[in-house]
Amino acid sequence: MDSKDKNKEYLKLGIIALLLLIILGGFLLYVSYPLLSTKKVILATQPVDPFDIIRGQYMTIRYEIGTIQLINGSQVGDEVYVTLLEDATGISRYKSSSLDKPSRDELFIRGKIISMSEDNMRLEYGIEQYFFERNARIEARDMDVEVKLSNKGGSRISRLLKDGQPVNIIYENKTYAS
Amino acid sequence: MGKSIESIELKQHISFGAVISTIGSILIALGIAWLIALNWSGMPSALKVLILVIATLGAYAGGVLFRIKDYPMIGGSLLVLGALLYTLSIFLIAQTFNLNTSLQSNAWLLLLSIVGILFATYIFDSTPSLVIALAEFLIWISLQYFSFMNIFSSSFSVGILAIIYLAVGVGLYGLTQIHKSLDHKFSNVYRYWSVFYILLLTYILSFQSLLPVLWPSEFELTSGILFFLMGISFFAIILTIIGVSMAVGKNKLSGKEVLSFIGLVLLYVLLISLASLVSGDIYSAYNGSMSEGLWAMWLFDNALFILVILSVIGYGTKYRSTRIVNLAIAFFALDIVTRYIGFIMDFGGQMGFAVMSIIGGIILIAGGWGIEKWRRKLIEKTREN
Asked: Is the complex ipTM higher than 0.85?
């Protein structure tokens, strides 16, 4: 290959490296945006099954605020804003909900209606799964989840808590003999 | 003479040295990879993502270096590795930030992967990367359909999936013609994949148990699915119109082929639509009372399958593509095996199974020899042309 063609190849490499970094960087920024926020809440979970680690080793988490009272005029797929109020134990619980975004002064989380019944509706916030590496063993059930919230109500899990302390995840060393 | 022996010995010496160094490099890389794997679970997420991104860029850089050194095959393989590592990076980032595991979420991630891989494919002019992109596209389109079904609470219909595959096949045919008119080597890859989608669609339509559920009795077309279908079909038709115009304009496509293709697409549209006359449920074919309409449709579909396979063989021969010929023969063999198993299941009984197994085994042995002989003859003929 002559030097002109070599330079062309290096230029192509430079372009693709830049493009992929832009795509990956953009994606990284998009998914980590709520984690850049200083707004932090602790959400109570309904019984968490730590053995539900099947698809790609992740745990399904159900939240107390996962099921709320039905809002008139809402339908499946709508975005709902759940305003939170911190209780004496530091857990943020359901205060109210609305189809309209609350003011910035309020603490709120954004969810989507996935099903509705006569009186209630189930919401999904995008934080219903927590991934582990293989051979993970979690010491405790009934965990709380520390979540970071963006200004628009977007959320990301920052860590799992038990009695206010980070949950210790133990990784067992599996060998062929174990 | 002495000089040439010396130079041969020197070359061998250099080659041997290069080989030893290469083995040494591989061992170092293996050791590093092993250390990373042992400590993976304890690593911070940011470091994991960084390792994967570096590996991705490293694979692409390696691919380019080998291409520069005139090792295009190794370079191509490394570009494929780069594409796969890039896809893994996206999914690892999603896992690190505990993103939703829904079908739609995974579909978005796959779409993001395909976009990046397509950029690399066209910038590097890499055929293997295009194959990866098209393979991921097949997974994405199927995943997206099932996701929409889930989101819009729509009932499953094989007919919608069939239309999607038909539209994609048409779109890929358009891309084939666009690239052919530009004398771009990717035309062969798009041609292969458009044939694959057509054969896949025809194979799906050949199942008597699936015909009643092409348009199930309780099926309702939701607006979301309709817009998705219309969007894909519109895009595919535009691509085909552009491609055919460009190729015909440069005398790289005959009117006869265009008419044959349009005829085939219209036939499929008619076939998929007519299936609504035999709509039922998945048990309709097994409750012992298959309607005459269902029988007629099934026989016609299977006859069409054989006809399409023969046409694809002719198409592959015309374009001197041994890969397309092999693909057609693979689907032919798949058809034989599928019909054989279906025959045993439908006309069951243990005695029947035993007799059918013996007869079937003899047919398969004879057929396998015959198919292989036929395949080699076709490939030889294709190469001669």
From this structure: no
